[in-house]
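New to this. Please check this record:
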Amino acid sequence: MINRFLRVSVLILFFVSFCNLGISQNLEEQLKSLPGIVSVAKMNANPFFKESFVLMVNQPIDHHHPDKGTFPQRVVLSNLGIDKPVVYITEGYGGDYGESEKYLNELCPMLNANQLFVEHRFFGKSVPDSIDWNYMTVENAAADHHHIVELLKPIFKNKWISTGISKGGETVLYHRALYPNDVEISVPYVAPLNFSVEEKRHDRFIRHKTGTAYERKSLKECQIEFLKRKSRLMPLFEQLCKDKKYNFRASASQIFDYCVLEFAFSFWQWGYPVSGIPASYATDKEFFNYLVKICSPDYFDIESGKSTFPFFVQALKQLGYYGYNPRPFRKYMELRDTHDYIMKLFMPSSIKFQYDPAMSLLVKRYLKKNADKILLIYGENDPWSASAASTRGNHKILKVVQPRGSHRSRIGTMPEVQNKLIIKTLKAWMN
């Protein structure tokens, strides 16, 4: 009797394993048969999913002129079931982390959904043999994402939910405005919507809205202390840059000043506590270590910046960015004018771009009039919230701001009341 039971159990396990293998092979074969698929490679899946694949998908360098050539775009698909929804992550940068089996977007377990991760064009492994920056446009990136939807939606026919963080959140908004029917729901996190290369809203936000008056005062006093001690901190600064082989497009003295200006933005963006600011009697070494902890000069290093160089191209052309305000520190600072600092610090002298806000204005109009089922998530103290997308009275979309939240604000970090509102909204939209 026991032997018979064991034999039956083994047969059942074999049958289940065979069926699962068949499902895996079937999806893999379907993916390989899709037009324009360069390669499909199986990878270790997060335990939440059944299987994961890394796809390289052929994309036109210019979607308006496909004859100009193609490039391979990295896509990571984690399958829970072809009958399940799809969480569609339109990453704004490189996508190495998308290949980690540890990576699991928080929306997937919430919505019991597949995970589809797309690296942004001209970042990471998603590059042509040679890059012509004329084709690094919002329109082409959105067309890339539209093409991925067209390829995979015939397989995954349930609801699609697009999402992304920071620049990835911007990417969500541009894609949704240009291709409103590609997905049913969008959840952009901490996504700015800028209208100039050097926005002034962020500086005003930092000086008047972040934290409490006491916290803002403490931060400014810390910046002034950096500058007052500059002559004593510069040997440490220069030694660090020498040891790390940092190379800048400005003098080390000017880069020090830029680090002090960037300090406030980084501090609030990543949600550091004011209690960590060194006391006025702290040593020079303590102040130096704190400056480097919050804003390391590697941000301005040419070599370190190669991975984010495509972003600054986009910022100068269409996305915009934030400006610095040296006026409150002129008494202590070498820098007098930071205008055009992106070109000066991040671009070779041979490159010039003209900013065009047309795509940001298009998104602004879309959110005001036509947008539907978009959940915007922000942190109250995040400087990027200064240029947050506006709902403009459109009750078909929802903005949720985490109290004292930073650029790390997510659904899982929200207070209970807001978390419940988000879950209730998503469930209603899914149904």
User: Anything to note?
Assistant: The CA atoms of residues 8 and 245 lie 66 Å apart. The chain has 13 helices and nine strands. Confidence is low (pLDDT under 50) at residues 5-24. Strands lie at 37-43, 51-60, 70-79, 86-90, 114-118, 160-165, 185-189, 375-379, 398-402.
